[in-house]
Amino acid sequence: MTDTTPTQRVAELIKDFRFAMFTTRNANDRLVSHPLTVQEAEFDGDLWFLVSRSASLVADIAKDERVGISLSSNDSWVSLSGTAELVEDKAKVKELWSPTVEAWFTNGPDDPDVGLLKFSAESAEYWDSPGGKIASLFSFVKSKITGEPYDAENETVELSGK
């Protein structure tokens, strides 16, 4: 592992994730997770998503802005807690636009149904298996043979003063 702060480590891990599960509370106060594509690779405490304005998660965050995001790969996992809001910023929508987004919004970035969702992180917890897939496999096998716990890095990080 490199010499980084826990916050920088969270940012390093997040840049490798493409998809997130975005958890809200629905009208019945039940937790519901929605799959979303992470639009920006540089994590500075905020994550951006392009969503349908008519999606249930938009109604959920209008009722309760507190949300959770989980991201995972074969050898690392990140859980974020924070708030979300729908933001009006056509320039940001166009900045984040990509051919992948067109699969959901065929009318382009000016489609009135395209919503810009800003997630502001307050805290994070991550688990990382140093060394990638092969090291993860090795640690798993070592754990099974020796009975010692799986070798993984875990830390909880406060990201804002909220």
Automatic annotation (TrEMBL):
Looking up SUPFAM superfamilies in the UniProt record yields: FMN-binding split barrel
- Which Pfam families does the protein's record reference? Pyrid_ox_like
The residues the entry assigns to the signal sequence are none
Q: What is this protein called?
A: Pyridoxamine 5'-phosphate oxidase family protein
Please list the residue ranges annotated as the General stress protein FMN-binding split barrel domain: 7-151
Q: Which InterPro entries match?
A: Split_barrel_FMN-bd (IPR012349), Stress-Dev_Protein (IPR052917), YdaG_split_barrel_FMN-bd (IPR038725)
Question: Taxonomically, which superkingdom?
Answer: Bacteria
